[in-house]
Amino acid sequence: MRYRIEHRTEYRYNAPVSRCRNEAHLRPRDTERQTCLDHQLVVDPIPTSWADRADFYDNPVTSFVVDGPFQFMTVTATSTVEVTDIEPLPAVGPGWTEALGLLTNDLSPDMLDAREFCFESPLVSTSRVVREYAEPSFPPGRSLVDAVTDLTERIHADFVYDPGFTTVTTPLDEVLDYRRGVCQDFAHLGVGCVRSMGLAARYVSGYLETAPPPGTERLVGADASHAWLSVFVPGWGWLDLDPTNDKIVGSDYVTTAWGRDYADVSPLKGIVFGGGDFHTLDVAVDVARVGSDQVQEA
Question: What is the pTM of this model?
Fold first, then answer.
């Protein structure tokens, strides 16, 4: 599948901004299952400095500075991405306790790379209550794939999708108390549950197809950037799961970046000097399929 993605962010301030410094994770990364064919990032007012780099997790990042005075700024990212489906899942795969043993004792490069995603991070707790929620999905003898698939189903069944009820910094214990949130909360919870069992999980930011094929149901979160979790399955690789929609991630998802949690991969973040005591933020996302004859590779 090929997709054209437009992600437009608008900021309005009630007083002039003298300067802002920003960091954007808006270019979809290249992975084993996707290739970013073209990407453009347009900022208005025009930035006075600009730098592209890769972060610690090899995600593409753009840093830019805009000098004022200004009270309105737009950041528009337009990308064309080609996505293939995941490889077939292992018929059985390792048990989750076997995977835990490998992550603990195996010193191979793949295991060491995965191990850094086994621990708490600023926005993901592995507290007692998080582990207590996770444990029913991880009985002795269950395969890791079955365990995390069950966890994904439970989060989808137990929690209500409720935009505006939480923020990205809402603690997981509070999300568990109220059983409400959005895709970022559910991804954080899934990551925290897996890590609380000693296993490796990372937070993934990306997009969903806005208009699904005829006869299929529109997925929750398709009108904004989306988030899900990815679990390391020894001997197979990283398995992406979406608890918001109770799905294994396939070719209708586009990956932008991954890290420990949202703070590592937020689409836009920065510091503003001035701007008054109030501002508004509007985000619009559109993900549309395109034919291969409409795309020119960059």
Answer: 0.92
Structural domains of the chain in order of their starting residue, each with its CATH number: 2-83+265-294 (2.60.40.2250), 96-249 (3.10.620.30)
CA angle (166, 157, 253) in 5-degree steps:
75
Say which residue the tokens 């300067």 belong to: 19
Helix (H) or strand (E) holding 61: strand 60-83
pLDDT tens digits for 31-60? 999 999 999 999 999 999 999 999 999 999
Given a contact cutoff of 8 angstroms between Cβ atoms, the answer to whether 60 and 27 are in contact is: yes
Q: Reduce the DSSP state of residue 44 to 3 states and report it.
A: strand
User: Which residues neighbour 46 within 8 Å (Cβ) at sequence distance 6 or greater?
Assistant: 66
Closest among 50, 4, 8 to 28, alpha carbons compared: 4
Whole-angstrom Cα distance, residue 11 to residue 62? 18
Q: What SS3 state is found at 120?
A: coil
β 268-274/253-259 pair status: unpaired
How far apart (Å, rounded) are the C-alpha atoms in residues 92 and 233? 11
Task: Measure the N-to-C terminal CA separation of the chain; round to a whole number of Å.
Answer: 17
Q: How far apart are CA 227 and CA 20, in angstroms?
A: 26
